Amino acid sequence: MTDASATAARRPGEPALAALGLSAPDPDPADTSAHSFPGGGRWRTEIPSCEGPEALAVVLKEASRLDVPIHRISQGSGVWMLSDAEITEMVESTGERDIELCLFTGPRGTWDIGGSTRTDSRGAGLRARGHDAVAGCVEDAVRATELGVRCLLVADEGVLWTLHRARAAGIIPADTTLKVSALIGPVNPAAYAVYERLGADSVNVPSDLTLDHLTEIRRVSGAPMDMYIEAPDDLGGYVRMYEVAELIRRGAPLYLKFGLSKAPGIYPYGHHMRELTLATAKERVRRGRLALDLLARHGADGDMAPLGSRLPGDLQRFEISS
Description:
Blueprint: H1 4-7, H2 14-19, E1 43-47, H3 53-66, E2 72-74, H4 84-96, E3 100-104, H5 130-146, E4 151-154, H6 157-169, E5 177-180, H7 189-198, E6 202-204, H8 211-218, E7 225-230, H9 244-251, E8 254-258, H10 274-297
Parallel strand pairs: 1-2, 1-8, 2-3, 3-4, 4-5, 5-6, 6-7, 7-8
């Protein structure tokens, strides 16, 4: 059963504004998302940009200190940037705490030799350029899942469909979940529904979508949505802390991603960026605590999905032809 506090409107400052005759119109109940996660709950949490075992240890320690619940931890540099031993250590550490670990797959256009990604238009962006790039993503997926990873982050529609087919064929485990990167996130309900049908189990939408955009998406798809509550600068640097309750009401089932603005990029990560990476990993957890405190202050912190839950529920898929 859905907690009423999760679907009721919670507006920062509203009681004070109402006392001054400045209250806003009542929200339309029809805007409330009708969807939730399987097993209960309307929101989960994610700490992104956790680039290796050392950063993971920092995140876990800080989450324990600040009492920040974590459902998913994701990495952005890619499977290929981690050794087997590092991946195994991360799998074991997250497994002990029943946290989903999500690793990014393979080559991407912005690191390729193609010049179009360096033009003002950014060309094809992070998509996999050519057969070999797709093959590299598949190689990463097979390697990661053999080492126990059960969530893969993708930034290309063809890679998504290929990995969905690989999952159906038993090439990678059937319970592997596929997450669409914010770097190719859909911006309209039709596109969102296409990603769901291509095999996405959660879809990271750009953080500049309006509340009405989220409602439009939820009228056509119940696939879990990921959104940066605070976005990195290369994704706009948006900070939407005060909208968290309303983002959940409109966008559930929703992963709250705690990114960090005003911080240098760290992809692809290496030890030359160690101090920055560890410091920003710690601060992302603190940002999560601040967002959760706001939810509690607005009376909208109920109906979090149970810790350890990771599956997306029944979703719509394109038929896989033989």
